[in-house]
Write a structure and sequence with these properties.
By secondary structure, the chain is mainly alpha-helical. The chain contains six helices and four strands. The protein has two domains: about 1-55, D-Amino Acid Oxidase, subunit A, domain 2 (D-Amino Acid Oxidase, Chain A, domain 2), CATH 3.30.9.10; about 60-185, 3-Layer(bba) Sandwich (FAD/NAD(P)-binding domain), CATH 3.50.50.60.
Length: about 190
Amino acid sequence: LPLSENRCQVVWTAPHAEAKALQELDEDQFLAKLEYYTGGLLGRLELECDRYLFPVQLMQSDRYIQSRLALIGDAAHCCHPVGGQGLNLGIRDAAALAQVLTEAHQAGEDIGAIEVLKRYENWRKQENLVILGFTDTLDRMFSNNWLPIVGIRRLGLWMLRRIRPVKIYALKLMTGLRGNIPEVAQH
């Protein structure tokens, strides 16, 4: 992820045993591996902070709501960082909840009532499931070297580059411009 002043943040995903081995390398060994795997495209690398290891798994809460309570963002769901969607989903959850609560308040409804909060849950849970499924599929496709999967992956990447409607659909899906977009997110 690009940052200012010729810096970047790296999220390196790997199977658990490999991730643990990377974490145990000293700084020079780690940087040598990182430079190797990035093909030297980033030039000579330096670490500015400690390295952290986070187990990643797909998760979505069975319920987003109960009386006077609504879960948003990482409290409601967790996805693989491969698609960079965690923050985006949380922002869209917050915007959708704000819209539902504002509309309910303007209509004189109790904003903590289950019936009101259920509108938020129905809206976001299904849309989040699509993104969670998509990012999980991406992770599985790019971490698998079984020949048929490699072929499917290459075909998918070719389609993204060459077939404009496929590219537009994928961009809209990953940028949150597909589905029921909260009003505040439309500006």
